[in-house]
Design goal:
Blueprint (H helix, E strand, L loop, with lengths): L3 E2 L2 H8 L8 E9 L7 H6 L21 H12 L8 E5 L7 E5 L9 E5 L3 H10 L9 E7 L5 E9 L5 H9 L28 H24 L21 E8 H11 L3 H19 L11 E7 L13 E7 L7 H18 L17 H18 L2 E5 L8 E2 L2 E9 L8 E8 L2 E8 L7 H19 L1
Parallel strand pairs: 5-6, 9-11, 11-14
Antiparallel strand pairs: 1-4, 2-7, 2-13, 3-4, 6-7, 8-15, 9-10, 12-13, 14-15
């Protein structure tokens, strides 16, 4: 069997991880149990409950499982049928420093699907996000969080960034939900193929491609140099000497109609408005907590950009580039903040996602596997030099997700937190609602809920401005 190696970018995410800075992304899906019978698919899942739960198991009673228990049973059953969830990463001898995928011969759903009784499912997500995924197993987990309300529960999905970027993680999670319209998971993993020996006639083309790649790397490096040294940012955005390894999670749901109303009056894109809410929310939050808002250029936001072709099957792994944007938190006027974000994003789009300082992810393709292995810790340390905050967006399909008949009511995407950073912001739109997922170093940002409130206040202010 031909070995399937990790791509350079996937390998980079695998190597930069540390115990205090796990490189998994996540999503907290909040479910509402349907009143009607969940159907044969859910009933069939009750037979194989292997959920890894220490609650509601082994009671010996022939009782009807609640919605959360049914969901855990279904996840345990369905994950065994998804090839991409049964693979683990292991080091290989050649190329030196590389890693590859291999089937997990001892795959056990109980090591990946967990059932947790908790008084507050959302509060439980923070400590769970702080725990790294086991590196000797397929790198993903699903935690079914059953709260005191028997009619609702939440599921925290965790996928290592080496396994999937945001879009691929969505497609992987979709394979575990009930079937929906045109819902497909990622393409089935295919074994890698050995590189063919180039014929003499192919050498000019190969040389041109290599030169083009080196030129791109030099261009990105030059753009990073032009972006200059990092400027001082509010202390609330930094995590001290690397961070504490603790995590807090908060979520905010906003009406998409309000966002569209702003966009229609001012122009630009929905994403421009969503980024502006982050800039204005940060300004309000910093002001309310008594921090100094810098008068000069604001913090640098890294905004990931997908390089997946529209309409193509989702693939495992990462297809990412990015934009770098100064968030205008020093600007007191909400509409001017939006105009500056729009201008900055238009400039980024004109240059394209393969150029500019934000395209740093593309440099991974030009690093030998041994470089990733030896340099991973150094790259992780350098994240603070490249950007100050991550602001990422993951689009969701327009139909309703269900699991065992229970409907997904809210979806909060959760991004990994780089070393030296105190805050990461992710946003998704689902069912006419914008969901912000906030992840923070819990020790550095003890008031994360106040930032969520500040985002709502910023939206309200923009709506007033355009009304």
């Amino acid at each position: 069997m031909v070995t399937e190696h990790l791509s350079p970018l996937d390998l980079a995410f695998w190597r930069i991880e540390s115990a205090d800075h796990p490189m998994h992304l996540g999503a907290l899906a909040v479910f509402e149990a349907a009143a009607q019978d969940p159907g044969p698919a859910a009933r069939a899942g009750r037979a194989g409950r292997g959920t890894g739960s220490d609650a509601d198991s082994g009671s010996g009673k022939d009782t009807e499982p609640d919605a959360a228990a049914r969901a855990a049973a279904l996840l345990s059953t369905r994950c065994t049928r998804v090839p991409g969830l049964r693979r683990r990463i292991h080091d290989v001898l050649l190329p030196v420093g590389a890693a590859a995928w291999a089937p997990d011969a001892d795959f056990d759903p109980a090591r990946h699907v967990f059932f947790v009784r908790t008084t507050d499912p959302r509060a439980a997500a923070g400590p769970l996000m702080a725990r790294p995924l086991a590196r000797d197993r397929p790198p993903w987990e699903a935690h079914v969080l059953a709260g005191p309300d028997p009619n609702s529960f939440a599921v925290l999905f965790k996928f290592h960034h080496a396994l999937a970027d945001g879009l691929a993680a969505l497609a992987l999670a979709a394979t575990l939900f009930d079937e929906g319209p045109a819902l497909r998971g990622p393409a089935r993993p295919r074994p890698g193929t050995a590189a063919p020996v180039p014929a003499l006639r192919d050498l000019p083309g190969l040389l041109a491609t290599r030169i083009q790649g080196v030129g791109q790397a030099l261009e990105i490096g030059a753009a990073m140099a032009r972006s200059g040294l990092p400027l001082p940012v509010p202390a609330a955005l930094t995590a001290g000497a690397g961070g504490t390894g603790t995590r807090a999670v908060a979520g905010l749901a906003l009406a998409l109609d309000d966002v569209n109303r702003i966009r229609k009056v001012v122009g630009g894109t929905v994403n421009d408005v969503l980024i502006t809410l982050v800039a204005g929310g940060l300004r309000r939050w910093l002001t309310e907590r008594g921090d100094t808002v810098p008068e000069g250029p604001g913090p640098r936001a890294l905004i990931p950009v997908s390089r997946r072709r529209a309409g193509a099957d989702a693939r495992y792994g990462n297809r990412l580039s990015g934009y770098l944007l100064r968030l205008p938190i020093e600007e007191p006027d909400p509409l001017r903040r939006l105009e500056r974000v729009r201008t900055g994003m238009d400039r980024n789009k004109e240059a394209g996602p393969a150029r500019g300082a934000g395209a740093v992810a593309l440099l991974a393709d030009h690093v030998h596997p041994l470089g990733h292995r030896l340099g991973g810790p150094l790259v992780a340390q350098a994240a603070r030099l490249l950007f100050d905050i991550l602001v990422t967006s993951v689009p969701l399909p327009g139909f309703t997700f269900t699991l065992g008949g229970s409907r997904v009511r809210e979806v909060y995407p959760l991004a990994p937190l780089a070393r030296g950073h105190a805050l990461a912001v992710a946003v998704s739109t689902y069912k006419d609602t914008v969901h912000y997922g906030l992840v923070a170093d819990a020790a550095a940002v003890p008031d994360l809920a106040a930032l969520a409130e500040a985002l709502q206040e910023e939206l309200d202010a923009l709506v007033r401005e355009v009304s």
